[in-house]
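So, could you explain the following?
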Amino acid sequence: MADDALLGQNHDAVRSDDLSPELVALQEEIADLRAAEQEEDSAMAALEAQLTERGDRLALARRLLADQEKQIEQKRAELEEAMAEDARERFEEVMREREAAAASLAEAAELLLERLVALDRSQDAVRDAWATAQAAGAVGRRSDLETPPEITAEPEIMREPWDRLCHEIRNRINERFEDELVDAASRSPLGSAINDLPLHLRDIARQRRHAIIRDAGAENGSG
């Protein structure tokens, strides 16, 4: 019995000695793992701090970008408003210029009409004077003389500008008449009157009819 107890004690001692190196190795491995854990924690903390810093910088950059975009939109709106104001002022200016030109033309037309009346009176006076001279024998025998062409014809000095004026007025009257024809045809039911126009006006009338239909559709859509 004593021998068995001794053998058991020796056996336990052997097993403890065998486990001691394993325990030491495990403790060392645990220590290494804890060191690695701490190192990873430190690295993670550094990464989180860096991520937070970068997030703050990104947020700041986004705010600055939003501010810049807002300023750009504001400047663009101001520029568009300034351009619109310039366009309005220019439109009003050219309208004033047109009104001034129209007033000057109206004044010139009135003066022209007065001068035409004066010319007609002068022409009548020339004919009367010629007839009186014939009757008095101041220009020879009445039966032998015909009215000189310079009396019945327009004065040479006004012929060329008068022809140009008549040509311009005739063209403007024709243009206005053609425009009225085109407008009436483009507004006819189904555009049926367009084919009754001269060939050179039909395409213009079709384009105007398309524009009228398009504008009417836009007004109905907005309403």
User: Anything to note?
Assistant: The two ends are 117 Å apart (CA to CA). The chain has a mean pLDDT of 85. Residues 187 and 209 are 7 Å apart (CA to CA). The first helix runs from residue 2 to 135.
